[in-house]
């Protein structure tokens, strides 16, 4: 009986440790303003791309035009992980179910950066201003 209890305790401990090690979050939690922006952006995306414009930054008209011509709406999302890149940039891996994903969640690499004193959402590495890319390993956020 002692053997079974010991094995059970060991098993529970291993499951707990494994679940802790699976998280890819950095030790530092995103600032409350950053998390609030992510929530506001995603809730706006449930309505329309146009509704989300106050929360998002583009590095050019091409990206903004492509974004606005999309009729895709977010149906649901889950933040899979986050990482502080530097004091002005956070990376988020988000699972997104949208009107274009046939009921499936797809992984997206998104960012929140401090631009001109305001936290803004960026939907890809290409929309991050060069001034915010310190410590960013762009290859970590490429779709494979």
Which short descriptors sum up this protein?
144 residues; alpha+beta; 32% helix; disordered N terminus
Write the layout of secondary structure elements.
Blueprint: H1 2-22, H2 32-47, H3 61-69, E1 74-86, E2 89-98, E3 106-115, E4 118-122
Description:
With 144 residues, this protein is α+β, with helices and mostly antiparallel strands. Helices cover 32% and strands 26% of the residues. A hairpin with a 7-residue loop joins strand 2 and strand 3. The chain is globular. It starts with a helix and ends in a 22-residue tail after the last strand. The model is unreliable at 2-26 (pLDDT under 50).
Secondary-structure element order, N to C: HHHEEEE
In whole angstroms, how far apart are the ends? 49 Å
* Strand line-up across the major sheet: 1-2-3-4
Low-confidence stretches: 2-26
Q: What helical percentage do the residues reach? A: 25-40%
Number of helices: 3
Structural class: alpha+beta
| Rounded Rg | 19 Å
Strand content: 25-35%
| Main sheet properties | 4 strands, antiparallel
Mean pLDDT: 84
The count of β-strands is 4
Shape: globular
């Amino acid at each position: 009986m002692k053997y079974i209890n010991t094995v059970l305790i060991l098993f529970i401990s291993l499951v707990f440790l494994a679940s802790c090690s699976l998280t890819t979050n950095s030790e530092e939690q995103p600032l409350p303003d950053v998390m609030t922006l992510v929530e506001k952006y995603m809730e706006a995306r449930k309505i329309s791309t146009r509704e989300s414009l106050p929360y998002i930054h583009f590095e050019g008209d091409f990206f903004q035009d492509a974004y606005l011509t999309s009729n895709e709406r977010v149906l649901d999302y889950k933040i899979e992980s986050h990482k502080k890149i530097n004091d002005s940039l956070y990376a988020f891996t988000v699972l997104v179910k949208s009107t274009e994903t046939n009921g499936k969640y797809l992984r997206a690499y998104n960012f929140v950066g401090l631009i001109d004193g305001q936290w803004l959402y960026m939907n890809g590495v290409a929309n991050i201003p060069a001034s915010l890319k310190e410590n960013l390993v762009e290859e970590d956020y490429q779709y494979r």
